[in-house]
Amino acid sequence: MAKEIGENTKITIDLKTIGLAVGGLVMMIGMWFTLQADIKEAKELPEPEVGRTEYDLKDQMIRNTIIETQKDVGEMKEEQKEMRQDVKNIERMMMQK
């Protein structure tokens, strides 16, 4: 049978549970106010400027990455050619038998 919950329902909670609930609530409220203060501070800070040096470094890094990728693709194409030649050689050997 299901118990009905109403005005006369009695719940027992020990002091330890109440303390934990209050402590958790206080902690969450503290975190909320800290977060609000951090947001307010972040809004007041000036936007960071991207300097010419930083821009040049990022640009050079991107260019180096592209060059390295092109080299890797070239090496893969060479390996692919070698593998195709190996497969052709194996096919010729199989046909001769």
Descriptive account of the structure:
With 97 residues, this protein is mainly α. The protein is built from two helices and no strands. It is elongated and about 95 Å long. The relative contact order is 0.04.
Q: How many runs of DSSP E, i.e. beta strands?
A: 0
Order of helices and strands: HH
List low-pLDDT spans.
none
Overall geometric form: elongated
Q: Kindly report how far apart the N and C termini lie.
A: 84 Å
Could you state the oligomeric state of the chains shown?
A: single chain
Radius of gyration: 35 Å
For the biggest sheet, the summary is: none
What is the number of helical segments per DSSP (H or I, 4+ residues)?
2
Per DSSP, what share of the residues sits in E-state strands of 2 or more residues? Answer: under 5%
Mean pLDDT over the residues: 92
Structural class: mainly alpha
The helix content is: over 70%
How is the secondary structure organized here?
Blueprint: H1 15-44, H2 52-96
Features:
single chain; 97 residues; mainly alpha; 77% helix; elongated
Question: Can I get a quick summary?
Answer:
The chain has about 100 residues and is an all-alpha fold. Helices cover about 75% and strands about 0% of the residues.
